[in-house]
Design a protein that fits this description.
12 strands, 17 helices, alpha+beta
């Protein structure tokens, strides 16, 4: 009996040592792969990590030389690949030319897989085809052959849900300008970059077509290498200011209403309608300036086309329909066909008031909107609450148009009084 127990003990001890050794080797491998290795070399020179190996089914190659020469380097914990499981938006932070920038993949890995499958299918190849070569005879080639026109690009993304030749010309002109070229000088490969971006996520094209240098409230776009873009980094998102002092929230709310106005009415005669609006989609710079940092789901409407085509009732004002959307945070219903055919719509005012400023704002953990808990004097006066309700859920026909204008004036008056 004693010998049996001794044998069992030795077997257990031997197994314990094996398990301990396996655990130790696992820890060493884990530490090397996810902690030491990421700091041992510049991952931003890796063509696979950048997605450059997928080109021309990518966003471009204009910054590849800067990546290869080590001019763009990861900052902070962005080097640690193990943290990618928490990096839902695939956004990293880096240093470029002495400034902090954001590196954005503009989508999840599963969405890139979906794009690759589409390329393989339309290129009449199997699901695991060679993307760089098959892209040249995928449906993108058909679009290039037919010409980059409203007909061939319609519904490729929200940016061209209401396409016009003037819009397409502007997008192509700005895209070529970023590359230091004229539109007619774009190579076949660059046109594939253009179409890949437009289909997957048009944000780079939006930032180039409506640049911050011309007054548009978007981040500066530096360029791309493969499937990684480089854009201006915001200091914080608007979510960080939900509990900020009252007047600071008033200032940010005023900026938001002015952005809604500018995107609706501007000298370029393009209306840009925000269809995905939340605290995380607005960025705030260190000096307090607000801008929109996620422009994937922006519908662009050419007002000059509406004036030329003159669809039925095109000059009438269109009032967006308020939707309660019970149990659905950040709900925002809209009629794309109406946005495409009406010259005057209140959609952007509706989006900001309904989802960000009023008591109807329903983002989880942020009740009452950004203008929650106003001072007692403001509550007693009642004007702010009345305008916010009318802007979000108007009681009178076209009441939102007037309420938005008055709300901008009222918020401005609060800041003058300080």
């Amino acid at each position: 009996m004693r010998l049996v127990r001794l044998k069992q003990f030795r077997q257990f001890f031997s197994g314990w040592r094996v398990r301990r050794m396996c655990g130790f080797f696992f820890f060493v491998i884990f530490f090397y792969c996810f902690v030491f290795q990421p700091f041992s070399y510049n991952q931003l020179t890796d063509t696979t990590f950048l997605g450059e190996d997928k080109c021309p089914a990518c966003f471009g190659t204009d910054l590849c030389e800067e990546f290869e020469n080590g001019k763009i380097l990861f900052k902070y914990s962005s080097r640690l690949r193990i943290l990618d499981i928490f990096n839902i938006k695939n956004v990293y932070f880096a240093i470029y030319e002495g400034m902090e920038v954001a590196l954005k993949r503009l989508g999840h890995n599963s969405e890139f897989d979906q794009l690759d499958r589409w390329i393989c299918e339309t290129g009449k190849e199997g699901p695991q085809c060679h993307i760089p070569s098959v892209t040249y005879y995928s449906n993108f080639s058909r679009v290039i052959y037919e010409g980059l026109s409203p007909k061939s690009l319609t519904d490729m993304s929200d940016m061209v849900r209401c396409p016009s030749q003037r819009l397409i010309d502007r997008v192509l002109e700005k895209f070529a300008e970023h590359l230091g070229k004229e539109t007619e000088e774009l190579s076949y490969q660059e046109k594939l970059h253009f179409l890949s971006t437009l289909k997957f996520n048009p944000e780079p094209l939006m930032l180039q077509t409506f640049p911050i240098t011309e007054g548009w409230p978007f981040p500066f776009y530096f360029g791309a290498c493969g499937r990684l873009t480089v854009v201006q980094k915001c200091d914080k998102t608007l979510a960080s200011y939900y509990s900020a002092p009252w007047l600071q929230r008033v200032e940010l709310s005023l900026q938001m209403m002015k952005i809604a106005e500018f995107l609706t009415n501007n000298e370029a005669d393009f209306a840009l309608y925000l269809t995905d609006i939340s605290y995380e989609n607005f960025g705030v710079t260190s000096d307090g300036n607000l801008f929109v940092i996620d422009v994937e789901n922006v519908i662009v409407v050419d007002k000059q086309k509406i004036k030329t085509d003159k669809p039925p009732n095109w000059e009438a004002r269109y009032q967006s329909h308020f939707d309660e959307c019970p149990g659905m945070p950040n709900c925002l219903s809209f009629d794309v066909s109406a946005l495409c055919r009406y010259l005057h719509t209140d959609h952007n005012y509706y989006a900001v008031c309904r989802n960000m400023l009023s008591e109807y704002a329903s983002e989880m953990g942020k009740p009452g909107g950004l203008l929650h808990d106003p001072p007692e004097t403001v509550v007693h006066d009642g004007t702010l609450q009345r305008l916010l309700r009318e802007c979000a859920k108007p009681r009178t026909l076209y009441g939102r148009f007037d309420a938005a204008k008055e709300l901008i004036e009222l918020l401005g008056s609060f800041l003058k009084e300080r």
